[in-house]
Amino acid sequence: MAGPELSSLTTRISVPEARAWAVANRATQLATEGRDIIHLDIGDPDMDTDEIIRSAVIDSLNRGRTHYPPLPGEPVLRREIADHTSAFYARDISPEQIIVFPGVQPALYATFQCLAEAGNEVILLQPTYATYPAVIEACGATIVNAVLDPKKGFQLDIPLIEALVTANTRAILINSPSNPSGAVFSAASMRALVKLCLEKGIWIVSDEVYAALVYDGEFASPLTSPGAEEIVVVLRSLSKSHAMSGWRLGWAIAPPRLASCLTDLSQPMLFGVSQFIQDAAVTALQHSDSIVPKQRDKFRDRRDALCRKLCKIEGFDVFKPAGGMFALVDISAFGCDGETFANELLDATGVSVVPGFAFGRAVAQCIRIGFCQEVDLLIEAAKRMADFARERRLR
User: Fold this and answer.
1) Residues 205, 171: contact at Cβ < 8 Å?
2) 99 has which bridge partners?
3) Sheet holding 232-237, edge to edge
4) Span 183-238, pLDDT tens digits
5) From start to end of 12-150, where are the E strands?
6) CA geometry: angle at 274 spanning 269 and 279, to 5°?
7) Which residues contact 273 (CB under 8 A, 6 or more apart)?
8) Buried b (16+ CB within 10 A) or exposed e, 283-298
């Protein structure tokens, strides 16, 4: 007997991109069997969270901060985020616009549950982060892909986006610095996008988890553009900037009417974020000036060391990232797609990367290589990849 039926939602929350982590999962299993594995797959920085943040959570626990929190977040954290982001974006942001979530992923899910539904269209930029399609399909909306040009550095293409807008377009989801391309969108293109979306009545959801990790050029957000306060939702976290991926703390910056809806949804979905985690987040934000630059410098050094080696590998077409934690590499010269290449690379060398199909069909012949490990390990991984590429060309 099969049992009662499941809801139609269950057919939408697992999309083909969900196989993105299959190589990484297999690498983890091989490591438990004793294989020498170098993980360049999951975007989890190897740095430990700063001691001052760890001490803050211990102090919070000792003070008994283990009870239900306010649904939108602790007032002291919302105020700290508002102050921090007001300075960052050079515009007034109130605590009432801040809704705290256990990471950006649930914030993203909740946002689209409140913005879009069946009959709506959401524009996604390809290459796109692997979880975005499931988020959009879960709310019932239809995905419309805007394929960005690698020859133009995967930069925001306003004419392309405008051509895709219809009467059903409800939102566009952007990510800069981008995962996986590392592209950093220009301030001019952000202003043009906001102008277009204001004219058409379209929401902009801006995933800015890598905002602190820009190496070339300047970070730009649509939130700084005139009129943005009515149509822009920004998602931020401490995962990358403060080495706090496992703490699960993120937030949405939203217009007040949407912020109220996100609070309402938080009640049946989450019922808040742990008090002691929020207390640690306050400390993290208060010490950003000493923590974040060190993180950025480490990642820049790692990017530079890795890309220098990757660019010397025959058959690798490397898109050097201007920001973020990943390098996208076109491996089409080897006559296979990224999934085949990634699996063969893992079996032959123990180096685990993510196949490009996870980020859209447009980059299916690519692999994403993370630089979340120490420089020496990245150089060793690049050496193994070079040896593998040489042998594969000789087949």
Assistant:
1) yes
2) 252
3) 98-101, 250-253, 232-237, 203-207, 169-175, 121-126, 142-147
4) 999 999 999 999 999 999 999 999 999 999 999 999 999 999 999 999 999 999 99
5) 38-39, 98-101, 121-126, 142-147
6) 140
7) 69, 73, 100, 101, 102, 248, 249
8) bbbbebeebbeebbeb
Tokens linked to 209: 């988890």
1 — pLDDT class (breaks 50, 70, 90): low
Contact yes or no for 294/90 (Cβ under 8 A): no
Structure tokens at 179: 């995962």
Q: How many residues does the chain have?
A: 395
- Report the C-alpha gap between 253 and 250 in whole angstroms: 10
Write down all domains in the chain, each with its CATH number in brackets. 8-48+291-390 (3.90.1150.10), 51-289 (3.40.640.10)
Burial 22-44 (b: 16+ CB within 10 A, else e): ebbebbeebeeeeeebbbbbbbe
Q: Which helix (H) or strand (E) holds 298?
A: helix 288-310
Structure tokens at 259: 């912020």
Is the backbone peptide bond immediately before 127 cis, with ω within 30 degrees of 0? yes
